[in-house]
Design a protein that fits this description.
- The strands form four sheets. Strands 5, 8, 10, 11, 13, 14, 16 and 19 form an eight-stranded mixed sheet that branches. A seven-stranded mixed sheet has the order 9-12-7-6-15-18-17, with no helix packed on it. A two-stranded antiparallel sheet has the order 1-4.
- It is of the alpha+beta class and 340 residues long.
- Helix content is 23%, strand content 38%.
- It has helices at residues 2-5, 17-26, 42-53, 55-69, 72-76, 78-91, 101-109, 185-188, 220-223; strands at 11-15, 30-32, 35-37, 94-98, 122-130, 140-149, 157-166, 193-200, 206-210, 235-239, 242-251, 256-264, 270-273, 276-284, 293-299, 304-309, 312-316, 319-324, 330-338.
Length: 340
């Protein structure tokens, strides 16, 4: 923004397409010069408008939204807008960053900044990045299964299985070459899903084994980046958000791909005291990626009884399962003590 307009910004407010829809729904439609746009028609309106006018259409539409929220429309729908705002911060479809450190600390404290949590317990944060120059994300059905094995409290283990189903309707195999295909919005909605996936773990976790994600021969990294086709892209690395497993995969239309990782958890994911121990898991959602369904199962050690486990289902004496809220961050907490 500074390069393009020679203006240094004080901060950034980001919102996803889902936030745009929610706000218009809360205001019972968006009044424009060409008529009222209802929430259920927003995405198709944006697709048609950007094909016709480019991104300037989206900018104009957003200006109309801001004007509406400053006027009589907001006064008449204030409660709805406030309720939607709170929900959107929770789902990370609305986030704020400011260079003012005092204000930013408060934003982080109340959870409006979208930062990845990094507590002393276990952590599961899956981050997908579409690097295929298309709009296929809405056609991707995501699921995961996370199994934590606490049968040996001295060596806790975890197994994560990720599943990606590309519901695009194009019949041809189009993951042969990673390239910018161009074209209208409706064409870009169906295509290959080139995904750079990262799974953020608790500090001290160690990758033991997992499925290979070979580098595709038609990827940019091979064709112009000098990389070797077929090499495994899976690895354990670090960035400002901590340790994570990363890999690169392509999912063709009408294809379902799964990838599994097995790793050792650090002992500090368990807090042991006076014959009892506590296990906590921070499940972190990715802003804009809605509906990632997940199930967490925990294998319990022999000789212990479960005394606290909110929202869990006891499958067997040594196994509990928890369905995870896919729309906002969640914390799973189990407390066990030695059987008498």
């Amino acid at each position: 923004y500074a390069i393009g307009r020679d203006v240094e910004v004080d901060g950034v407010i980001s919102l996803t397409q889902w936030a745009f829809i929610e706000f218009i729904s809360a205001m019972n439609g968006l009044k424009t010069d060409s008529g009222v746009i209802q929430a259920e028609d927003l995405l198709s309106t944006i697709e048609e408008g950007t094909d016709r006018e480019g991104t300037i259409f989206l900018s104009t539409l957003f200006d109309v939204l801001i004007d509406s929220m400053n006027g009589e429309t907001l006064k008449a729908n204030g409660i709805n807008v406030l309720t939607s705002t709170e929900s959107l911060f929770g789902s990370k479809d609305l986030m704020i960053y400011t260079r003012n450190t005092e204000i930013q600390s408060q934003i982080v404290k109340i959870g409006w900044g979208g930062a990845l949590s990094n507590s002393r317990g276990d952590r599961l944060a899956v981050v997908d990045s579409n690097v295929g120059w298309n709009k296929v994300d809405r056609n991707i059905d995501r699921k995961y299964s996370y199994q934590v094995d606490l049968s040996d409290v001295k060596t806790p283990r975890a197994k994560l299985e990720l599943e990606y189903a590309n519901l695009s309707v194009i019949a041809d195999n189009i993951c042969d070459v990673q390239k910018h295909v161009g074209g209208q919005y409706e064409i870009l909605l169906d295509g290959c899903y080139w995904n750079y996936v990262r799974v953020y773990l608790p500090l001290g976790a160690e990758l033991v084994s997992g499925d290979s994600l070979p580098l595709e021969p038609g990827s940019i990294a091979v064709r112009v980046g000098g990389q070797v086709a077929g090499r495994d892209t899976v690895g354990l690395t670090y960035d400002d958000n901590g340790v994570h497993i990363s890999g690169f995969m392509a999912v063709n239309p009408q294809e379902v791909r799964t990838v599994t990782f097995n790793y050792l958890l650090p002992r500090q994911v368990l807090r042991i005291e006076s014959g009892a121990f506590e296990y906590t898991l921070d499940v972190v959602v990715q802003g804009g990626t809605r509906g990632r369904e997940g199930v967490v199962s925990v294998i319990l050690p022999d000789g212990y009884e479960l005394i606290e486990a909110a929202n869990s289902v006891r499958v067997s004496p040594n196994l509990v399962e928890i369905a995870v809220n896919p729309e906002r961050d969640d914390v799973i907490r189990l407390v066990l003590r030695e059987s008498s």
